[in-house]
């Protein structure tokens, strides 16, 4: 477990440091992010799903999607309850709730699940992420825009989801992956997750926000996002007597910091993008401590 987290956070931190010392342009980061999200990760997830999916994983796929919906909705409820104790101003309330709802279940969640649980962890993680994406593109946008929804295309054409769906279809058919094709996909997978972590670290390093002005609000947000949500989810599974791969992946995903897309979406929908950027930065830094602790709690 320690080795898994050390590897993930080392590569993530390397991206952070590189961006501070030899910064890439916003355009370069955007292109690298697009390469990871639109090509590399979908290819990795297709191959991983096609070769690692088992009857058990296929059977729990609907439950993982439902969990990816229910946990963010629960986070929304906790965020609403935390607004007053955290002293959240009216201008930041929508982003406060959105930040607690939407975690970094893709760029950080998938690599960590792979490091902890192996290739099948990626399948479980992305199915959970699909549920979270559903919430982000519906209730999330509704929250940021004050009750309006007008664009479902990012959800329908999400390449990560299609990578898993095609992989599941391949697994269901029972086709064997030819060796001559499997080897290139394996090599591609060896580079995909490190590059995803490097890009994520660089994106976090780019954040420049007056976070001190919102210290109380960000403290409440971070505690709710990184502690309250995963601990309560873990408690529910404990009461159900579940300690399997399904419950472990859901708790780990529930413990992720604020998603990297939160700031972009906040700006796109005329919410407080600076507060969202601060939430991403500080929750991610705090997650360096909280995520290993959550994993110890699981064990």
Structural account:
The chain has 299 residues and is mostly helical. Helix content is 79%, strand content 0%. α6 packs across α11 (245-254). The protein is globular. The termini are close together.
For the secondary structure, the number of strands is: 0
Strand content: under 5%
Label the CATH architecture: Up-down Bundle
Percentage of residues assigned to helices: over 70%
Order of helices and strands: HHHHHHHHHHHHH
Descriptive key words:
globular; Na+/H+ antiporter like fold; 0% strand; 299 residues
In brief:
This protein has one domain (2-298): Na+/H+ antiporter like fold (Up-down Bundle), CATH 1.20.1530. 79% of the residues lie in helices and 0% in strands.
Question: What is the topology?
Answer:
Elements: H1 2-21, H2 26-52, H3 55-82, H4 93-101, H5 109-117, H6 119-144, H7 153-156, H8 159-173, H9 179-205, H10 215-240, H11 245-254, H12 261-268, H13 273-298
């Amino acid at each position: 477990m320690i080795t898994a987290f050390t590897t993930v956070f080392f590569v993530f931190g390397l991206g952070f440091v590189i961006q501070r010392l030899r910064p890439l342009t916003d355009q370069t980061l955007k292109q690298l992010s697009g390469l990871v999200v639109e090509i590399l990760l979908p290819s990795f997830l297709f191959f991983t799903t096609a070769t690692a999916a088992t009857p058990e994983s296929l059977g729990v796929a609907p439950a993982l999607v439902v969990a990816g919906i229910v946990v963010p909705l629960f986070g929304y409820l906790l965020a609403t309850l935390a607004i007053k104790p955290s002293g959240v101003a009216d201008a930041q309330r929508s982003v406060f709730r959105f930040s607690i709802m939407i975690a970094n279940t893709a760029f950080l969640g998938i690599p960590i699940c792979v490091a902890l649980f192996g290739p099948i962890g990626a399948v479980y993680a992305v199915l959970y992420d699909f549920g979270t994406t559903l919430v982000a593109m519906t209730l999330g946008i509704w929250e940021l825009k004050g009750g309006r929804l007008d664009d479902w295309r990012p959800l329908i054409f999400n390449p990560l989801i299609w990578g898993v769906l095609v992989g599941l279809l391949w697994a269901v058919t029972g086709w064997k992956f030819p060796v001559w094709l499997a080897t290139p996909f394996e090599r591609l997978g060896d580079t995909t997750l490190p590059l995803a972590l490097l890009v994520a670290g660089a994106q976090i390093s780019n954040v420049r926000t007056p976070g001190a002005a919102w210290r109380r609000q960000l403290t409440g947000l971070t505690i709710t996002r990184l502690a309250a949500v995963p601990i309560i989810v873990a408690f529910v599974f404990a009461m159900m007597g579940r300690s399997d791969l399904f419950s472990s992946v859901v708790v780990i995903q529930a413990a992720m910091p604020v998603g990297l897309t939160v700031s972009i979406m906040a700006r796109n929908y005329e919410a407080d993008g600076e507060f969202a950027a601060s939430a991403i930065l500080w929750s991610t830094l705090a997650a360096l401590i909280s995520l290993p602790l959550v994993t110890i709690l699981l064990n």
